[in-house]
Amino acid sequence: MDITVNILLTIATAATPLLLAAIGELVVERSGVLNLGVEGMMIMGAVGGFGAGYLTGSPWIGLLAAIALGAVFSLLFAVMTLSLATNQVATGLSLTLLGLGLSGMMGTSFVGQPGARLPNLDIPGLTAIPVIGRLLFGQDPIFYISIALTAAVMWFLFKTRTGLTLRSIGDSHTSAHALGIQVIRYRYLAVIFGGACAGLAGGHLSLVYTPQWVENMTAGRGWIALALVVFASWRPWRVLAGAYIFGAVWIGQLHAQAFGIPVPSQLLSSLPYLATIVVLVLISRNKRLTMMNTPASLGQPFVPDR
Amino acid sequence: MSANQDDANLLEVRGLTKTFGTLTACDHIDLNVAKGEIHALLGENGAGKSTLVKMLFGTLEPNSGEIVWNGQAVTITNPGFAKNLGIGMVFQHFSLFEALTAAENIALSLDDGSPISTIAAKARALSYSYGLPLDPQSLVGDLSVGERQRIEIIRCLLQTPQLIILDEPTSVLTPQEADKLFETLERLRSEGKSILYISHRLEEVKRICDRATVLRHGKVVGHCNPRKETAASLARMMVGTDVQAVVRAPAQGIETAQPLLEIRALSRKPATPFSIPLRDINLAVRAGEVIGIAGVAGNGQGEFFESVSGEVQQQDAASVRIRGKDAGGLSITGRRLMGAAFVPEERLGHGAAPRMKLSENLLLSRHATDGKVFVGAGGMVKSDAIYAAAQRIIKAMDVRKSTPDPEAAALSGGNLQKFIVGRELDRRPSVMVVNQPTWGVDAGAAAHIRQTLIELARSGSAVLVISQDLDELFEISDAIAVMHNGELSKPLPIAEATFEKIGLLMGGAEPGHAEHALETS
Question: What ipTM is given for this predicted complex?
Fold first, then answer.
C-alpha cells in the first residue's frame, strides 16, 4: 500500500513541472503567439530558483525568484516578437539556446552545492490519514499551485470576458484590432504569464524534484510541454491529463527498468512519449472540436497597417 | 436640441489624403454627412472608398486632412476611439471570429461588461425587431455569408452608433435579403441615425440614398442627388466615360448541340469542418451556350470549381466529362489537354504567380497544352515565342501596363484579370469555366470580359460562369442555375428567369416552391 502511495506521489512530482509549463504556454498560444522558448525560460527559472534559495537559505524566496526570472526572460521574447515583429519560431528557438547557455554560466558556482527544498504540506490530523492523507494533504506547495492554476485558466478562458477577448485575438488578430481590442497589450500579458509559469516549472525542478543545480537539468521538459499543448488541442483539462499520463508512464518505465524487465531500456524510455501521443491523439479525434480550439492566427506576427 | 443643430452635419471630412508609397489612394477628399441621412459613397473598385472609411474608423492614419465630428475636429487613432465617438462599421471583409458563437462575437464588441447570457437575449430581441433573425448560440464558422452579415449589423446596432458605415453590404445578400436590409436602413434613418453607404450598385443607391458623393481615382468628382440621376449618368460619373453595353447575340441551335461539359452526380465531402459538401450535382453545358451559376458566396461554388477544374480529383471518373470523355480522374493539366480552360477566383496566387512576369505566367499555365510552341528540344524554353504570345494576348484584351512584360502583381486587378482570361481565350478552348470573371474589375474591363465570353460561346464553345453578380449573369447567360448549400438547381432559361425567381432559389427555396411563392404573392 505504501509503495502505491509513493509511486502516485512521484508521478505527481514528475507531472507538475510539465503541467505548469504547458498551461502557461497554452495561454500564450491561445492569444496567437507561439513561444518555442519554454525550455529556455524553464531552465532560467530553475537556476534562478536554486540560486536565490541557496544564497538566502529560503526556498520561498527561491520560488519567487524562479517565477520572476521566467517572466523577465519571456519579456525579452515579447519585445522581440510583439514590438519588433520578429519571426516567432526563430526568436523562440534562440530564447531556448540563450537560456541554456546563460543558466549554465550563472550556475557554475552552484554545481554540487546542497540546495534548499520546499517543505511538503503538513496539516496535523489530515496528513496522517492513511493513503489519501499524503496524497491530498502532504505534497509540495507547487503541486497545489499547478492544480489551482489549471482550474483558474479553464475558468478564465471560458467563463470570463477577458478570456473571451484573449481567445478572439488568437482566432483573428486583424478582426480583434478592428473591434478596438489592444492586441499587442493582451499578447504581452499572455507571454509574460507563460514565462512566469515556465519559470515556476523550472523552480519546481530545482527546489522540489531534485533540490540541486545541474546544468541542462530541464532535460527537454520544455519541449514536452510544448507538444502537450498541441496534442491536447489547446484545452486545459487535456493538458492536465496529458501531463499526468506522461508522468505515470515515465515513472512506470523507471520501475520496470529497476525490476530488470527484459526489454531494451531505450524502448522503455521512449514509452512515455508514445503513450502520451497515442492517448491525446485518440481523444482529439473530433476534427470539429479541434478546429474550434486551434488558434487560427498562431505564430503570425501582428503588424497593423497604418 | 435646436432645429439649427438638427441641420448640422454629423461628420465633415476636409482634405483627407492617404498615400501608399507612390500611390495616392485618397486625394484631398471632402465629404459631409448630415444627421438622419443615407449618404452614398460611389466609385469603382480602387477609387479609394475603402481607404476613406478605414481612416474614418481609425484603422488607417491619414497623411493630411481633417475629420470634424459634431462640430469638433477629432483625430481618430484606433477603432476603439471611433466606437466611443459613435461610429459603427459593417465591414466588407468580415471581422468575425469563426471559432466563436454569434453571441460571443457580439459580446466582444460591447464594453459594458454585461454577461454573455444577457447579450444573447439582447441580440436575439434586437435581431427580430429589425427583421434579421439570428440564433445567438450558433457557431459563426457554420453560418452562411448572409447570416454572418446579420451578426455584423446587429453587433453594430447594439453599440447604438450615430453613424453607421456599410461597406458593400449587399454583395453577399440575395435580392430578398437586400430588401430586408433596406427596410432596416430606412428605419434607422427615421430614428435619426446617419448612414454612409458604400456601393457600386447604382440601382440600390438610387433607391435608398438621399445624397451621393462620387469618387474616381482617389478624388471626389461630384456630389449629386441619386434619385434625380439615371443609372447611366451615375455610371458615367464613376467611370468617367460611357460604358459600352454588352451585346448578347441570340444563341442558335443549342437544343441539338453536343454537350461539351457534363457533370454527373458529382458529390464531395467537406474538406474542413467549415466547408460545404457538394450534393449530387448534375449539369450539361452544350456547344454555343453560356450557363451561369448564381448563388450567395460560400454555398459551395469554390468547392464546385475545384472539382470541375481538377484541383480536386474525383473518385468517379464519369462525374466530370469533357467533350464526351471521362475526365474526373484527371489533373488540371489532363483536363486542359482535353480542350478545357479554367479561370479561378483569386487572381494573385491562384490565377497568376504575383512575382512572375506575364510571359512566365503564360508558360506556367500553358506549358503542356502548347508544349510544341513554347518548349523546344531538350526542354529548353522558347522565350521569343512566349513573349510574342504574351504580347498578342495583351493586345487582344487591351491590357494596360507600364512596361512591356511586367510582373503580375504590378497590374491593377482589372488588367490582370483581362490578361488571365485572355491567356485562356487565346487557346480557343472548347470548354471554358470561369469563377467570378469580373470581381473587383472596373466597369469598362468587365464589359470587355463579358463580351469576349459570349463571343467564345457563339463560336462553338461551352462556357460556364460562376458569379455572385446577378446583373452580370443576366447580361451574359443563356440559362442560370443556382447553387445553394452545395446543391445545384436546374438551369432556368434566361427568358423565364427573373431576379425574384433566382433570388428565392439563392435563399434556398426549392424550384417548385419558388413558382408557388410567386403565384400566391
Answer: 0.80
